[in-house]
């Protein structure tokens, strides 16, 4: 006599696993919509949870967006740091020359993160979103400043150069790239982005470098 087949029991997800799934699915929704158009109903359906469950984990749609934004920022900064480090390990001047190239490559490798960050810029009238974007850009700034400081300590850059001013020069290129991508001008910037880095670096170098 054949034994009756027992129904397979579904394993209940742990809270942290459920939260991670919601973040993953919400990231996709925010990246392919606008913040205003992404409803809590859609976010819940894509995450395979109820709206009350969504609120339980994140409090509100804005709370979920801030959590997604924070995660995207951390992942992007980790990728960018690795890219800078690989170049600087061989040649810090080469790393400075290709800062904009590496930033652009990091964005291209993860288009969803790029779109979420752009959504955040559009929502920057909200103080909490603006603070998150400001914190993100500040960390990008610090990664670049470390390279500039290392080049100066190695004797490649003029010792009298203000490190903050030099770093903000590179940041201005990155912000121009971001603006260009938002306005579909990235093709024009891509043609000159490496030369932008070369021109700026030439103004920072010591005569012997």
TrEMBL record:
DNA-binding region: 39-58
Entries under SUPFAM superfamilies matching the protein: Homeodomain-like, Tetracyclin repressor-like, C-terminal domain
Protein name, as recorded: TetR family transcriptional regulator
Source organism per UniProt: Dictyobacter alpinus
Domain of life per record: Bacteria
Domain HTH tetR-type stretches: 16-76
A Pfam match: TetR_N
Keywords: DNA-binding, Transcription, Transcription regulation
Alphabetized GO MF terms: DNA-binding transcription factor activity; transcription cis-regulatory region binding
């Amino acid at each position: 006599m054949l034994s009756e087949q027992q129904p397979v029991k579904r394993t209940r997800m742990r809270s942290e696993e459920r939260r991670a799934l919601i973040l993953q699915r919400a990231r996709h929704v925010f990246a392919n919509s606008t913040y205003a158009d992404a409803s809590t109903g859609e976010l819940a359906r894509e995450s395979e949870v109820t709206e009350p469950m969504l609120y339980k984990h994140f409090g509100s749609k804005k709370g979920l967006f801030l959590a997604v934004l924070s995660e995207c920022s951390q992942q992007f900064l980790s990728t960018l740091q690795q890219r800078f480090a690989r170049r600087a390990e061989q040649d810090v001047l080469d790393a400075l020359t290709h800062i904009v190239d590496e930033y652009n490559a990091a964005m291209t490798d993860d288009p969803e993160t790029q779109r979420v960050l752009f959504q955040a810029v559009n929502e920057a009238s909200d103080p909490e979103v603006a603070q998150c974007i400001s914190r993100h850009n500040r960390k990008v700034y610090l990664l670049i400043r470390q390279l500039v400081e290392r080049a100066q300590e190695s004797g490649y850059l003029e010792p009298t150069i203000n490190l903050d001013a030099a770093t903000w020069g590179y940041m201005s290129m990155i912000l121009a790239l971001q603006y260009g991508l938002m306005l579909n001008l990235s093709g024009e910037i891509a043609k000159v982005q490496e030369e932008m880095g070369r021109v700026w670096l030439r103004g920072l170098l010591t005569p012997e470098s």
